[in-house]
């Protein structure tokens, strides 16, 4: 459409120009110069009854008439000279003076009437082509400059030919009138020669003089008339030149205006193409985003029951998309209206070529329409940018919500999986650690028994020397016996129960921190079936949140989600901090255990006299460390996050306590 419309416009314009040129060239029929002269001669011959000789002269002259201007002017001069010579010769003949009194004025009057009639006819013939030429000038000129120049030249040549023809016709009429008068006079004088030669000589001379004076006056009148005609022709030429120049200027201005209108049409078409391309791109993007949102919606519905919130958000997005589609449809309608306006503008431009007066009015109207269209386009662009920004914001918010939901789901799944794994690992690790510790304690007890037996042997030797040393040894032996005789099963059961209670407490605290709004969780913490009851309360809470979200507005939903996300972020940050603290403490405890193991090794190397003192010191340090660990656990029970890593840390802390008690 964009390329075809200007091509059609140009084709119509060319066809109109060609048709006008053909009509001006072939449609208007005019008499040729030869036909007009032949008609005039026939009329004069019928009236005057001219002989054959002047007819031959006329035919010769008619054959010579279509020559150039210079030849025509020379012929006219020669004809005037011949007429003058004939008049002179007519004076010399005395025979022609014998004319009667009565018939001569009648014939003169008839000749004058015929001459006046011929002059009137010639004047009418002159006026008719001049009028026709003026009417031709009034007709609309063709568009191209070549056609204009050709038409102007053709008109000028025709006018010059018509002027020359008029001059020649008048000269020919003079030449024809004089010889016609001559034979009539000769005939009359021949009849009356014999009767009255002497009487009428004087009268004939007077009449000849009168005729000569009349002929001279007629010649002067004709010359003045010719001069006037030449002046009129020159004035007409100047007027025509001015008119042609004005018409050329008008044509140039019109062509410039038409070119400017075409350029504006092309710019409008280019802008419309760009807008259509932008609209198509935006539609494709919106369709792709809609498909992606629908796919995400299906995934969310299949995975969780909490996807209903996402469904409500997707419904809102669909409504927004429908509104955007409606607006796009409206914009397309506006574009169609713009195209219609453009077509109307083309039709108006075609009409403007034929109507010169309405050019300015139509131009102003088109400029106003163009300004309105530009304003509309700017408004549409602003609306599209606003819609795109809103859509991007909504998409980002949906992504954030989906990301948070997925994180929560993954955390819940990880908690469940880690809970099972941790329980199994804890049981296994506890059994392994307890068995290893028991083995270590047995080995240590064996080594201690061996040392004690050695010391007994030594002490038996020393009993005789110092009874106080004997009492200290008895106390040490009793302690070692109590440590060696402690049952294995009781220690393991107690440790497992303590670890499980600690895990349950940490999980409960984590759930309470996730859902601080549920106050009933605190009352259920002492029961055995606390997990099922927690699940029921959480499901009820989620359902209540859904109902509240359906009733409240979008702004409140976003605020709640943001608050929850901030809460989750704060919880995650706290867990990371506690993780780092526990890692540092574990490293410190490992270092202490290493130092204790080194000290034990050194004590094994120490002589037997100092064993009792070192054992007592070690027991005191172990008791001190266990008390410190308990105090730290009690102080940080309120800040526990329930994450699987913390549970691992707690299990390691429990193992460390067991090791401390074993020592």
What's the short version?
This protein has 663 residues and is an all-alpha fold.
Would you kindly provide a written description of the structure presented here, covering whatever features stand out?
Residues 52-67 have a biased composition (Basic residues). Keywords: Coiled coil, Membrane, Transmembrane, Transmembrane helix. The protein is mainly alpha-helical and 663 residues long. The protein has three domains: 4-260, no CATH class; 268-392, no CATH class; 412-510 and 562-662, no CATH class. It contains 16 helices and no strands. The protein has helices at 4-27, 33-48, 52-64, 69-92, 103-138, 145-192, 201-303, 307-354, 359-463, 467-485, 488-514, 520-524, 530-551, 554-605, 611-635, 644-662. The longest helix is centred in the middle third of the chain and has 105 residues, at 359-463.
């Amino acid at each position: 459409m964009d390329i075809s419309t200007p091509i059609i416009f140009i084709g119509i314009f060319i066809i109109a120009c060609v048709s006008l040129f053909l009509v001006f060239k072939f449609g208007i029929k005019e008499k040729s110069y030869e036909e007009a002269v032949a008609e005039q001669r026939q009329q004069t011959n019928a009236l005057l009854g001219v002989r054959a000789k002047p007819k031959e002269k006329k035919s010769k002259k008619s054959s010579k008439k279509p020559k150039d201007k210079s030849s025509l002017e020379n012929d006219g001069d020669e004809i005037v000279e011949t007429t003058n010579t004939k008049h002179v010769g007519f004076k010399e003949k005395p025979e022609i003076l014998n004319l009667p009194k009565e018939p001569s004025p009648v014939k003169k009057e008839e000749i004058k009437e015929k001459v006046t009639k011929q002059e009137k006819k010639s004047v009418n013939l002159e006026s008719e082509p001049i009028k026709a030429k003026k009417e031709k000038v009034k007709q609309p000129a063709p568009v191209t400059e070549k056609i204009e120049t050709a038409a102007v030249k053709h008109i000028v040549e025709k006018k010059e030919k018509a002027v020359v023809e008029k001059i020649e016709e008048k000269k020919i009429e003079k030449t024809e009138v004089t010889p016609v008068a001559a034979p009539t006079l000769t005939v009359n004088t021949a009849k009356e020669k014999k009767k009255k030669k002497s009487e009428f000589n004087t009268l004939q001379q007077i009449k000849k003089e009168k005729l000569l004076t009349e002929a001279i006056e007629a010649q002067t009148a004709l010359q003045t008339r010719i001069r006037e005609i030449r002046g009129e022709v020159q004035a007409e030429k100047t007027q025509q030149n001015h008119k042609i120049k004005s018409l050329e200027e008008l044509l140039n201005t019109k062509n410039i205006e038409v070119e400017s209108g075409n350029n504006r049409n092309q710019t409008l078409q280019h802008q419309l193409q760009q807008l259509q391309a932008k609209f198509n791109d935006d539609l494709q993007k919106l369709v792709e985003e809609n498909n992606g949102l629908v796919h995400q919606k299906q995934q969310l519905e299949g995975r969780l029951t909490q996807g209903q919130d996402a469904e409500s958000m997707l419904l809102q997005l669909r409504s927004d998309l429908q509104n955007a589609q409606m607006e796009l449809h409206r914009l397309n309608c506006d574009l169609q209206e713009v195209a219609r306006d453009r077509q109307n503008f083309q039709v108006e431009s075609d009409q403007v070529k034929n109507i010169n007066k309405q050019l300015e009015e139509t131009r102003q109207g088109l400029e106003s329409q163009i300004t309105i269209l530009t304003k509309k386009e700017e408004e549409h662009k602003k609306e599209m940018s606003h819609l795109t920004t809103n859509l991007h914001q909504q998409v980002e918010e949906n992504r954030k919500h989906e990301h948070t939901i997925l994180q929560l789901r993954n955390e819940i799944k990880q908690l469940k999986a880690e809970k099972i794994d941790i329980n199994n690992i804890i049981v296994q690790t506890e059994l392994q650690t307890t068995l290893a510790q028991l083995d270590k304690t047995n080995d240590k007890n064996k080594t201690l028994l061996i040392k004690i037996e050695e010391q007994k042997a030594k002490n038996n030797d020393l009993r005789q020397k110092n009874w106080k040393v004997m009492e200290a040894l008895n106390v040490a032996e009793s302690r070692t016996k109590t440590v060696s005789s402690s049952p294995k099963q009781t220690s393991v059961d107690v440790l497992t129960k303590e670890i499980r209670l600690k895990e349950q407490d940490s999980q409960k605290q984590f759930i309470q921190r996730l859902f601080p709004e549920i106050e009933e969780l605190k009352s259920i913490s002492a029961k055995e079936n606390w997990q099922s009851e927690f699940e029921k309360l959480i499901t009820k809470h989620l359902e209540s949140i859904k109902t509240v979200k359906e009733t409240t507005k979008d702004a409140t939903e976003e605020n709640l989600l943001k608050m929850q996300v901030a809460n989750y972020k704060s919880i995650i940050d706290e867990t990371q901090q506690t993780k780092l603290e526990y890692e540092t403490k574990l490293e410190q405890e490992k270092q202490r255990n290493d130092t204790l193991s080194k000290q034990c090794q050194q004590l094994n190397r120490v002589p037997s006299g100092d064993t009792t003192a070192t054992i007592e010191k070690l027991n005191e340090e172990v008791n001190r460390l266990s008390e410190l660990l308990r105090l730290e656990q009690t102080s940080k029970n309120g800040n526990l996050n329930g994450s699987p890593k913390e549970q691992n840390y707690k299990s390691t802390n429990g193992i460390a306590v067991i090791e401390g008690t074993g020592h």
